[in-house]
Write a structure and sequence with these properties.
With about 325 residues, the chain is of the alpha/beta class. Helix content is about 40%, strand content about 15%. Helix 2 (about 55-65) links the parallel strand 1 (about 45-50) and strand 2 (about 70-75). Helix 6 crosses helix 12. It binds aspartic acid and phosphoric acid mono(formamide)ester (CP).
Length: about 325
């Protein structure tokens, strides 16, 4: 499998590293852990080092670790409350935290930070979001959601809407979807927030059909999945540019009705105004269940990273 870094550890850095076979094993393990209460991580410690805000990713990793019998040390605002505030480099912090924990789950504001951390860590590093780079564990839970709700991934038509320039979740999800058969991706965004050329080139190389449009309403009837995203305010260097683009796509109940009956509405969350709360009651609204599925997937990932030999036994 292609997820070991050169130092032989199972870092989780980017979505491209996963094979469909590995993903299937993680999904099977997530299903298993949902039904069976086990504590295989007793005696293990996870450090969550977050330099950017988070509700779901940090809490779900921590909940996953505790549910599997492990323990947690955490800093929720490492930018202010870790020694980064005194000028310590990321590399030095990681070298030190490696002595205190068996795995480091890190969110950082700079693209590439998780990869940098993995080069100096002596324990596995899990990327919980690196700037506008990637969010690989989110992509796995997104895929798990699609698989559970629609019964498979091959052949789906999915629209990713909103901020495709700065949104890291759609980047990681695109990388994963490129590994499946006959997936069709529709990127819906204003001209200024189009998806990066690196993603488009990757999809071309993987023969994944995609097209780009600015019009959400028109594509809705053709979808199996609508993946709505937040305009990433914190990544705009010009606040006036954000003001111009905010609120560009707002999913109302009337728009949600244009989706086929079987279709699901997903969102990595947090949402601002891109899905009306009036949509929440729709059976198509999957975004809160998605957060529950995230807990299961992160339990499976932690078990894999911290007890890789038991994972191999299950192969
Ligand atoms: N929570 C997701 C992320 O950290 C999506 C978002 O913030 O809009 O990338
Ligand atoms: N989806 C997600 O990453 O949520 P948080 O930013 O709250 O962790």
């Amino acid at each position: 499998m292609s997820f070991s870094a050169s130092n032989g550890m199972n870092h989780i850095i980017q979505a491209q590293q996963f094979t469909p076979e590995f993903i299937k094993k993680i999904f099977d393990l997530a299903n298993h852990l949902e039904m069976n209460h086990e504590t295989p991580l007793k005696g293990k410690i996870m450090a969550t080092l977050f330099y950017e805000p988070s509700t779901r990713t940090r809490f779900s990793f921590e909940s996953a670790m505790l549910r599997l019998g492990g323990q947690v040390i955490t800093t929720e605002n490492a930018r202010e409350f870790s020694s980064a505030a005194k000028g310590e480099t990321l590399e030095d912090s990681i070298r030190v935290v490696s002595n205190y924990a068996d795995v480091i789950v890190m969110r950082h504001f700079e693209e590439g930070a998780a990869e940098r951390a993995s080069r100096v860590a002596s324990v596995p590093v899990i990327n919980a979001g690196d700037g506008k780079g990637q969010h690989p564990t989110q992509a796995l839970l997104d895929l798990y959601t699609i698989n559970r709700e629609l019964g498979g991934i091959d052949g789906i038509t999915i629209a990713m809407a909103g901020d495709l320039k700065y949104g890291r979740t759609i980047r990681s999800l695109s990388y994963l979807l490129g590994k499946y058969k006959n997936v069709k991706i529709i990127f819906v965004s204003p001209e200024a927030l189009r998806v990066g050329t690196d993603i488009k080139e990757y999809l071309k190389r993987h023969n994944t059909t995609y097209h780009e449009t600015e019009k959400l309403e028109e594509v809705l009837p053709s979808l199996d999945v609508l993946y709505q995203t937040r305009i990433q305010k914190e990544r705009f260097s010009d606040p006036a540019e954000y003001e111009k683009l905010k609120g560009c796509y707002q999913l109302t109940p009337a728009l949600a009705d244009r989706l086929p009956k079987h279709a699901i509405i997903m969102h990595p969350l947090p949402r601002v105004d891109e899905i009306s709360p009036l949509v929440d009651a729709s059976p198509k609204a999957l975004y809160f269940k998605q957060t529950y599925y995230g807990l299961l997937v992160r339990m499976a990932l932690l078990k894999f990273v911290l007890t890789p030999s038991s994972f191999r036994d299950e192969e």
